[in-house]
Amino acid sequence: MMTFISLSENDKRFLFAILLVFIIVLVLIGYIGYLVTRIMKWQGKKMDTLVADPVITRVITDKHHFISYARKKNWRLFFKQSYIGILILLFGVIMLLIRDGVYKDFSYNPFNTKDGFGSLIFVWDYSVCFKRDGASLIVQWPKLINTPHFEIKAWGGYLFAISLFVGGAWYLVALQSLIARTFRMYSLSNTAFEKTLNGFNQNVAYNPNNINTNNENQQ
Amino acid sequence: MITLFKNIGRGILYIFVLPLLLVALAVYAVVAIFIFIYLAIKGLVLFFSGRSLYEDLPEDIEAKKRLGEKPSAQPMSIASDPLGYPSNDTATSTDPFYVPEYLKPNDEHVEEVAEENRNEPEPEYQPEVSININREEEIKEEIPQKSVQKRDIYEDLDEDDDSDSGIHINYD
After folding, report:
1. What is the pLDDT of residues A81-130, one digit of tens each?
2. Nearest to residue A174, comparing CAs of A82, A83, A89?
3. Beta strands in chain A (DSSP E)
4. What was the ipTM of the complex prediction?
5. Does A49 touch chain B (CB under 8 A)?
6. Residue A98 lies in a domain
7. Can you give the pLDDT at residue B125?
8. Which of A22, A36, A71, A79 has the most B C-beta neighbours within 10 Å, making it the best mutation to test the interface with B?
């Protein structure tokens, strides 16, 4: 019997650990995706509230009219939901521009580790992890190049980064809600004006006033 | 275990679809920014012309008119009201502040009645129903005589007989 690869006990353990981590990551991604789907379904229900009255009162009676109306309402709600996030983003950009103007440095990187937002977080240098020394590969821990510290000159970077995170998250949530409502809009446009013949038989005596009763009896 | 495999499968699917989703999200985000700018400009113009971006669309106005005047399309009916109120009124599931017609205070009617009451003198109290105060007769008439024969429960009690309970039951 030929053996192509011989694995030691340590190699097997290492491979098993990698496989386990991979499975856990897949399960986590699956759960996150499921959670996002559920949240989007919940957000999409807002579309029902937006379009209910004209549809119930039969002001809107066809699919194209419905989509046109629902799209207008959808974008309006998006504007209403997202304008605070956009204002926060604008505030951050204005602060950054003021900081650049004050220090006359328009090449300033607001995320740098010296006088930017990077000064507030741990930063490691991963380029030293793998080094080749002749035929052997040397593996090292990443080198810590910054520990959190406060820099007064980095106030523009701090304000910009915080505004970017808060405003960006706000905008993304509003965007996700917009997409969820758009899906719901197309779903409703297919079902709200649907005519069904389930439970209807033309050969049974037809009374338009009793059609619902007939259906109920058949169910 | 099946749930675990489902989640693993879902995770693999999301890993493959994620780049496409991110591209779609980015495109949507850019388009949304442009539409946001358009709506912001439109909102400003409408604001300075004394109107609002959130004002009702023609469909909303028509719907409100129909709901106000003839609210009997196909919304949730209150025909199954446990109090048995008239089912002519309707309610939409979307209106959290909906008050049925029969629960709304009719101020005009209340004022009219109050005005009439002020003008009219208070009538004397005249009971229309007479009450029979002869209670003995009443009780005799109402309570039927039961056909139970009274017997002394101890009349057949024999001291010598231990099995006798001392209670006599008449089934007639």
Report:
1. 999 999 999 999 999 999 999 999 889 999 988 888 999 999 998 888 88
2. A82
3. 123-125, 130-133, 136-139, 143-146
4. 0.78
5. yes
6. yes
7. 63
8. A79
